[in-house]
Amino acid sequence: MKLANEKKFPVIAYGAGSGVCGGTLPTSRGVVLDLKKLDKIYEVNDKSLTVTAGPGIVGQHLEQELNRRGYTMGHFPSSIYCSTLGGYLAARSAGQLSARYGKIEDMAMGIRVVLASGEVVETLCAPRSAAGPNWAQLFIGSEGTFGIITRAVMRIYPYPESRLFHAFTFNGVHDALESMREIMRAGVMPAAVRLYDELDTILIGGKKEGSVEDPINFDEPDESPVKQALHKLKEGIQDVLVSIPKATGRAAEFIKGKCLLVLTFEGTPAMTAAELKTSIDICKKNNGEDAGEEPGRRWWNNRYNVSYNQSKVFYQGSFVDTIEVATTWDKVEQLYHDVRRAVSKHAFIMAHFSHAYTHGCCVYFSIVSRGRNEDDAIKTHKAVWDAALGECLKAGATVTHHHGVGLFKGEYLLKELGGLTDVFFKMKKAIDPANILNPGKLGLPDWEG
Ligand SMILES: Cc1cc2nc3c(=O)[nH]c(=O)nc-3n(C[C@H](O)[C@H](O)[C@H](O)COP(=O)(O)OP(=O)(O)OC[C@H]3O[C@@H](n4cnc5c(N)ncnc54)[C@H](O)[C@@H]3O)c2cc1C
Hints:
By secondary structure, the protein is of the alpha+beta class. Helix content is 38%, strand content 21%. It contains 17 helices and 16 strands. A hairpin with a 5-residue loop joins strand 6 (108-114) and strand 7 (120-122).
């Protein structure tokens, strides 16, 4: 960083490159700083329940080592095999068990950062503090534009003794969302709460075998003739969906059906039993039909599958993308309908609701569309994002819950920031006056050197 500061060239921090918004793409000449060799675990502190590690450690390796020693960090993004601790912190990642363990920013207790000048700074590690602004949080989520994270102290937890699963089906999303909200409001801390809308349930959640997560899974190994026939039927539906997504998108608006709610609980046996009972009571009160524990177990066993099958859609000439936004409970349902309505003119769209909190949740849309040619596909892709995030901005929802901003969502972030944009630009100028740290990301000025 000292050399970059002296010679004035951009430096782009690189974890594992799994970020989906172009955060690691250079916009000009510069150096990509691969941090994967900073992968040591320095300390596991049993008394304070913390782990200190380098930013380059892959999520799965960190979690496995913690599990071996009897702990969990509780961070399980679908990209756990191909993403790093530094990347999580830099892009404010969320794992599938965020309802219980929080997002990565909740897990971080202290960080070490190399500034644009090459100076190394470290934030103090305390359970909570009132010593001015939270300096760690200034760098967390800055996607390599404020500094390079070179070490982190993270919260960990004893590995859970008990894990329970349960699922319910509902007629439409309304009662199911009410159940989610009431479960969180009651103080239950489920490890995972995932609600699939009607289309997501038909294409994913309704399956008896294989991945409940997987909308476009063409490789499912079915053996019995009935299963093979069902598999062929699903393939046929998926082929139609992928080849004429705009038409199916409009038609899908009228589909009504069941929505699957999957719940997972982790902790001591007494705690999980109590949380499960409270949740079952709430779902039944809201007209949920008990689907037992099997759909929850299936989700757990296949929870990382979906993302790795998306490339198949591209081979068929269409594209797939995911849009993850978040808002408070009073706006979630309306936002879901508004985004679906706006996007279905351009794409097939379905959603699940995950990352539930006491005060709101994330809506995770999956879209499939295509263009007449590459230019047209790029135009359609932009139209989808403008439509979706336009509705979010109108509603006062955040344009990203956990994928971050990168190169792609800069314009939407600045719209979300509104009057804070000026403060943001001034902060960047103060922290990195030569603009050498990942220029052009987060809607900040591009490299002009
Ligand atoms: C298949 C798949 C599934 C995914 N599922 C999830 C999911 O469930 N939850 C989720 O949150 N995300 C998910 N993502 C997105 C992605 O994995 C996350 O954004 C993750 O946090 C990126 O980590 P990375 O190490 O790959 O970072 P990179 O992609 O290498 O970098 C991301 C950004 O952080 C910056 N950066 C990286 N390391 C540092 C550092 N040490 N210091 C400063 N800046 C740094 C980079 O410059 C870049 O701007 C998924 C992506 C894929 C491909």
